[in-house]
Amino acid sequence: MRVLVTGASGMLGRATAQRLLGRGDDVTVLQRRPADLDCAQVLGDVADPGVVARAVAGQDAVLHLAAKVDVTGPWAEYERANVTGTRTVVAACAAAGVGRLVHVSSPSVAHGGSALVGVGAEPADPAHARGSYARSKALAERAALAADSPALAVLVVRPHLVWGPGDTQLVGRIVERARTGRLPLIGSGAALIDTTYVDNAAAALVAAVDACGPVHGEALVVSNGEPRPVGEVIARLCRAAGVPEPRARVPFGVARAAGAAVEGVWSLTGRRDTPPLTRFLAEQLATAHWFDQRRTREALGWAPEVTLDEGFARLAAAYR
To answer: Taking the model in full, what pTM does it have?
Structure first.
């Protein structure tokens, strides 16, 4: 199959492209900077119609991961990368006659701040999504699903909290804060959360490329399906990296108020570095969010290959 992968310079995009290449697919990747992959590469902005049209030409399927993933920065940057970028990819797929589009989203598009307990892929809700990333991804997901048609099958996949060796988002930030003593537990640390080991997320995206067509016009949440207390997950990540586990605790209400204050300071001063806390982060660390995986596994014909315990062992080996 001829497959275009956007955003292949990120951990998940690269792992997915490698898996497609490993099974013999003809892979092209599109991102801003070169990726360490032995395949055709198109460099440029995913919101640039000319660049995207060149990358999409001749493809059987498009796997769209490219996005701005951060907790700070002007709304215009999220809108261009995530919303305009997705609309540009959708338009290019339709113009080039691509039959399948798998759009990679996030469970945060349906998270309004309260616990998510054993739910499926609830509708994306830009009005209540927390922060610019989640809001922009919610708008992007809606744009992608609106394009689903007999000519272009669209399937949305929402991997939840993807981590693994080389992760600079979840693992990297936790480890850095733990190393410098700036990683308290928010609330009790007992809230159950789902996470996804990177190899499982990549396998799910490849399965989505294959399933897209018969399965289309819906969103599916992907996770390991092994909810664990958030305090345990953070402790295991710290142990794997050889950094101190968090000892201090901050009440959720205090953390949420502090996150709002920090957001205000960052917004007023225009700071671009990662803030120590936001309201969304406080909510993620203090409320349950785990998902019913039955529809996902049935639709994709997929199940996780790597357990969380094996994932932690692989992460520890990578740090050693």
So the answer is: 0.94
How far is Cα of residue 129 from the mean position of the Cα atoms in its chain?
15
CA separation, residue 68 to residues 98, 246, 266, 268 (Å): 24, 29, 18, 21
143 within a domain of the structure (yes/no): yes
Q: What is the pLDDT of residue 301?
A: 97
Residue 44 token pair: 């440029």
Which residues form the catalytic set? 133
Residue 313 inside a domain? The answer is no
Blockwise average pLDDT, block size 10, the chain, 320 residues = 95 96 98 92 97 98 95 90 98 98 95 82 90 94 98 97 91 90 88 96 98 98 96 95 91 85 81 76 83 96 97 96
**The 3-state secondary structure of 178-244, one letter per residue:** HHCCCCCEECCCCCEECCEEHHHHHHHHHHHHHHECCECCEEEEECCCCCEEHHHHHHHHHHHHCCC
Calpha distance 56→240 (Å, rounded): 40
Q: What's the domain range around 40?
A: 2-163+196-223+290-306
- Determine the pLDDT at residue 114: 77
Quote the number of domains for the chain.
1
| Residue 6 maps to a domain | yes
Residue 26 resides in a domain: yes
**Under a CB-based contact definition with an 8 Å cutoff, are residues 48 and 86 in contact?**
no
Write b or e for each residue in 291-315: b if 16 or more Cβ atoms lie within 10 A of its Cβ, otherwise e.
bebebbbebbebebebebeebbebb
For residue 218, give the CATH number of its domain: 3.40.50.720
